[in-house]
Amino acid sequence: MLQEAEVAPNYAFQFLHPMQITQRELADAIHVPYQRVNEQVNQKRGITPSTALRLGLFFGVSADFWLNLQIRWNLYKTQQAEQDDLAEIQDVTHWRQMA
């Protein structure tokens, strides 16, 4: 099972403080509104492909890195929300034996 600290997209934004970059400076550097960066840092907005490309260029990492963080976060949140229902699903081998 995924752990929240491992997958939260805002984890990567923790680079900002040690690099002495403000959210506003990042927003200006990657040509997006400050509100977008702020909402992403505070987990109120997901990382889009557009933002992933911009962050990748700015930080020198791939856009995939950023999108994978978002996808893992989405999976984690869905796993938590649907935990009971998912626990009742049996694999295909068991399903075929029941048929």
Task: Describe this structure as you would to a colleague.
With 99 residues, the protein is mainly α. The chain contains 7 helices and no strands. The chain has helices spanning 4-7, 23-29, 34-41, 49-59, 63-81, 83-87, 92-98. The radius of gyration is 18 Å and the shape is elongated. The chain starts with a helix and ends with a helix.
In a few lines, what is going on in this structure?
It contains 7 helices and no strands. By secondary structure, it is mostly helical.
- Mean pLDDT comes to 87
Distance between the termini: 29 Å
CATH superfamily grouping: lambda repressor-like DNA-binding domains
Shape: elongated
CATH fold node name: 434 Repressor (Amino-terminal Domain)
Which percent range describes the beta-strand content?
under 5%
Corresponding CATH architecture: Orthogonal Bundle
What's the story with the biggest beta sheet?
A: none
Give the helix proportion (percent range). Answer: 55-70%
Number of domains: 1
Helix/sheet category: mainly alpha
Number of strands: 0
Q: Secondary-structure element sequence?
A: HHHHHHH
Number of helices: 7
Tell me the Rg in angstroms: 18 Å
Per CATH, the class reads Mainly Alpha
Oligomer: single chain
Unreliable runs: none
Pfam family, one: HTH_3
Keywords: DNA-binding
Organism: Marinospirillum alkaliphilum DSM 21637
Domain HTH cro/C1-type: 21-66
